[in-house]
Design brief:
heterodimer; A: alpha/beta; four-stranded antiparallel sheet; globular; B: alpha/beta; Dihydrodipicolinate Reductase, domain 2; eight-stranded mixed sheet; six-stranded parallel sheet; 14 strands; 31% helix; binds nicotinamide-adenine-dinucleotide; binds zinc ion
Amino acid sequence: MLRAYDYTEYTKGRSEIQDAKRFNEELWLAKTAVDRVLQLDTDGPARCPGCGSSHIVPFFVKWGAAYLMCDDCASVFTEVGDAALEAYRQDEALTRFRSSPEYQGEATQKRMQSWQETLDWIRFRCFRHLGRHEDLTAVTGGDRYTGFTELMRASPLCRSYRPIWEQEPDGTADIAVSLDLIQQSNCPERELMEIGRCLAPGGLLFLSARLGTGFDVLVLREHAPIYPYGYVSLLSQRGLEAVLARTGFEILDLTTPGHMDVGYVHSRRALIPAQDLFVRNLIFNSDPIVLGEFQRFLQKSGMSSYAHIVAKKVADK
Amino acid sequence: MKRLTTVVIGMGRMGKMRYEKLKRHGGFQITGVCDEKPENLQGYPEPGYVDWEECLARCDPEVVFVCTVNAAIPAVVCRALSLGKHVFSEKPPGRDLADAEAMRREGERHPECVLKFGFNHRYHNCVIEAKALIQSGLIGDVVCARGVYGKAGSPTFAEEWRNDIRLSGGGILLDQGIHMLDLLRYFLGEFDRIMGRSVDTLVWKQLPTEDSAFAILKTQDGKLASLHSNALQWRHKFDLDIICTQGYIALNGLITSTNSYGEEKMTYYKKDLNARSGALGKPLEHTMCFDQDQSWEHEHQEFYEAVVSGTPIRNGTAQDAVRVMELVERIYGNTGRGPAL
Ligand SMILES: NC(=O)c1ccc[n+]([C@@H]2O[C@H](COP(=O)([O-])OP(=O)(O)OC[C@H]3O[C@@H](n4cnc5c(N)ncnc54)[C@H](O)[C@@H]3O)[C@@H](O)[C@H]2O)c1
Ligand SMILES: [Zn+2]
């Protein structure tokens, strides 16, 4: 398995990938939806969605939803049943907001560069592991942004690019893309099974996910930029490895190229718990060069809160 | 898994290491070990021989691994081939071009035998990734490259057989620089011109061999490479820069058993003159770090598959061996430190 880090000093202010006003509006809509959903029964099974352990401890509460941590693999999650989660996903105001041309247009404008980089990553790793990076049958677990879908469809990478529920028959896709999806699921195992079903044996899964073991999550807890039920299962690296193994995948590359952990914590530094003396000293008293080095260290050591994984579908036994 | 009866000839540092890796592979059944120094055979359960001809005759193996000093390599390789054995030989392919050509000719006389040379650097993770990135076309075509491969030397460096021209054939260029030359060929193609060179003994004045070799090489289609192979780095170093029309790759460090070449890394970025991915002159940069050296395992596996399944050798062919020795000889020229042209 490959270890890697990505590095750049994002001199162009890439953290502002969303207009602040629009972001706050989205957050407010999400919170309203969560309030409604919390009236429903949100209890899911109290098992770690990563390793399956039942050794669970409380972590923090956000917007009235309890986040728990697995004592065995350190995955973070909030309990929510299928019906409640579906109600959140179908929330009319939130769905309408996110599918509006303004929202999608802004995403295309601000995120195109990072989508291009994602596409380059997929093409490079396809070539490395499959020996080809053109004309592939590709499926997606679902894209939040239509701009990304269009980019994939127009790329020489894809002969076809369909949602998994349209791919037929089973076992025919060369590659599958699941970007920032499994963190929204209360059962990542089920999502990965669905995707795996579409893939041909030896086919590749490109997965990106927020990790619960990232620096910003562990330091900021309820003040971290995560919220119910957009973030349900924040697996640890170990949790991800466990769930991928259970669903018939072999990990080829696992990298943590997240570059925003330190920035998030820095911009919310007043909320760092008072007893975290080391982190407070680091964040309050370091110059940008030291903070940049620290982010680089997090990326390289698997401690950033964002993971990229390439995994191979193992032939069915 | 088919098990191939195998002997290892030359049980020094490399022979011992390959012996262990071959055992772990599972497809090689070692039936004999050989070294002219009997003390190097102690502790091995297989029959040991001090005479390689006796070893070949008695063991009659399917496969021969040759890990002796350079001077002994051609005779062992050619005899083994003439007996119809598959042969894996350490680099360098003998002491000079004539040695390499003799082995290639013997190989051609026995097309039923697999012949492979140990240019294991091609199987280092950083090299595998760099090759894939270049072949993917994502950073354009290779234009030029700069390779530095340097050693610290050691308190006993002057006494090593590596610096005894009769046994080695040359100095640091032939011993270590040859790996970098092989990689430059691997990434840029065949060099037909040496644009400049200097082979010197700059610090280790007591040596008959060189401690520094610089060369500038050019391919027929105009790709350029520079090489500095040296034993006066005072710290182990491996660096290879590859510049492409649409991007850049740097290989820094190499995982080895001593971990003295530094962490093995590949850094790459795409040309971005419009500063979309970062600032102008500071584009988004990716670095892959590797914490394992599987080069020996990959190398043995390619050889094994060639023997068992008849797949062609991709890396370290007799042709590779001859071509790289041509370059070595041309860089040495008539300096008297290596084989004379
Ligand atoms: N692929 C690589 O990266 C790499 C690295 C190191 C060495 N090498 C090569 O491996 C070979 C051996 O190098 P080493 O570092 O193991 O040296 P070494 O001195 O440790 O081992 C060489 C062994 O060969 C034995 N030997 C010499 N002549 C012999 C003969 N006629 N019959 C039987 N045994 C004989 C010696 O007694 C010695 O034990 C060299 O050709 C060297 O260039 C390759
Ligand atoms: Zn767990």
